[in-house]
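hey m, so remember when u said the tokens were messed up on ur end? i reran from scratch. heres the input so u can diff it against urs
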Amino acid sequence: MLADGGFSGGRIGYEGSAYFFTARNLQVLTRAMPNARFEDVDLLVNWVRTVKSPREIEVMRQAARIVENVMRVAIDAVAVGVRQCDAAAQISAAQIRGTEQFGGDAPANPPSILSAENAATPHASWSDNPFRRDTATCLELSGCRQRYHTAMSRTVYLGKPPDDMRRVAAATAEGMAAALATVKPGALCQDVEAAWRQTINRAGFSKPSRIGYSIGLNYPPNWADHTASLRQNDTTVLEPNMTFHLMLGMWMEGWGFELSDTFRVTETGHEVLADFPRQLFVKE
């Protein structure tokens, strides 16, 4: 197609880090068009995609309606004695079922269900172990509509939460509010992270890793755009209709707590796409 279009001797960009563009693919192209100049443009297209169109924002709002339902299903499914894999099955069904108005897609990431000791480790998968009393379960899930994602994390505690858990939950919620209050056009990604970090530091906690990333259209194995990150020293300037997953994972020694939401940068501040309580969900 490139040759037929008259590009056989032109300058052609490719994404060297693309999951599904292999070294073999590049060899085939270079052999087929020996006079072309191939250059790795890395994340050029991803950076263009960081600012969403009004239609893209509307689809992400639909994904938000899906993830609200999904999280309700997930919290109900987490109960003493229930196998984690059975909860994952209910969550996956809810993700694809969507809402009465529109269906969902299978998200780029599978459901993240971190329970008991696994809650101290991000991105672990579920197991066939049952949920246990006096443990926390971190749920990082997404609604997906036409391949656009709106992600959300909440934490469920089975039993009476210890004081440390309640303190972390309160500090994380306060830190999220501070981070979101910083979001506006012209602010930098590092400004959002700094507001969060200063807030949790005052409460006696720290988190050296990033707290979010650009999100939107994607396919497995990952829903992140791999461009702008809410982290120290990221000087990306926020613009209207950028969308981020503000992911606050507090992974402690032997346990963890997660709280996250997806937001849009507006003309004057921010819009959190999903409407769901920001709290530690306790099931005694």
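this time it looks ok to me. The longest helix spans residues 54-77. if urs says something different then somethings off w ur setup not the seq
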